[in-house]
Amino acid sequence: MLKYYKALDGVRAVAISLVLLQHYAYIVGKQINAGFLGVDLFFVLSGFLITGILFFSKEHFGSAYKKFLGRRALRIFPLYYGSLLILYLLNTPGIRPWITYLLSYTFNYATVYFDIPMYPIIHFWSLGIEEQFYIFWPFVVLLLRNQLKWLLALMLGLAVLCIVHLQFHIFKAIEPYDYVSLFPRIYSLIVGGLGALIFSNRTLPQKLKGKFPEILMWAGLIVCMVIRSNMKMILFPPLALMFIIKARDGLFYWNDVNVLMNNSRFGYIGRISYGMYIFHYPLAYYLSIYVFNPLWNLIPFNSIDGLGFLYYQSWILRLPLYTISVIILAHLSYRYLEAPVLALKNRYFA
User: Per the domain annotation, does 329 fall within a domain?
Assistant: First the structure.
């Protein structure tokens, strides 16, 4: 089992914060690709952790695969399917017509094939990619874990194929699905996986430490914020991996970042980030309809000199209010549902 690094919860907190910025302050989030950056950071981190867990497992193939899927199922399924049930009973927009795809973790493909509108369940597409990765990736890593050169060659080859496709669209049938399909989004997961194999027992080389390389990293991340083409999908994962390794090893040149990544409160946001991701969009939908919008529309903005423009800047209040609300909901979910179920992992899949 891999060592637990507190700072990686901080990375998760950064990722979910970007997602919330995209959906709770869209006027801001869309300008900096916040949703993409947040989800892709989750992908790279997931590839980093999952590949490491599989590669360094000691059991034979059958036991390792069963253990991995069992532990993943206990982590993911109770909250995922429980939330689908609640949303189905509430008749949340979009849930009933597309329930088959949601139940089967194929909603990511349905969003493009059926051109599904921005329903408050639309964010579930990324969970489909994750689950598809969890099902097939163990076969690759577990079968080749004793042949590291072949595993690295396969991963590098697949990563290059993803890059070539993203840049030149060589698979025309896949092109419409580029953003939501396992291929080529597996590129981000593979970059994380390569990081797990290369940096499992070592840190960044000296030439990537220090002030100047970190300035280049931050500059690259800023570039990814403004790029609108597929190029951001190629550039961001390696930068995200560098961010992850720096966080894990406390290597940020500006120590305030190290402090933040290891802050207990900030890290707790990362620990409950799965619940926050599940809940954040449906919660915003219901809060907007039944609470925020009715109250917001009661305020006579046009009657207040110089403040009429605020009517169209509701995100200034939505962002903190919705964020606090989803943190509370995710905390309750983690404490009373997720944590008790997670305790079963070591009982049945130790």
Answer: yes
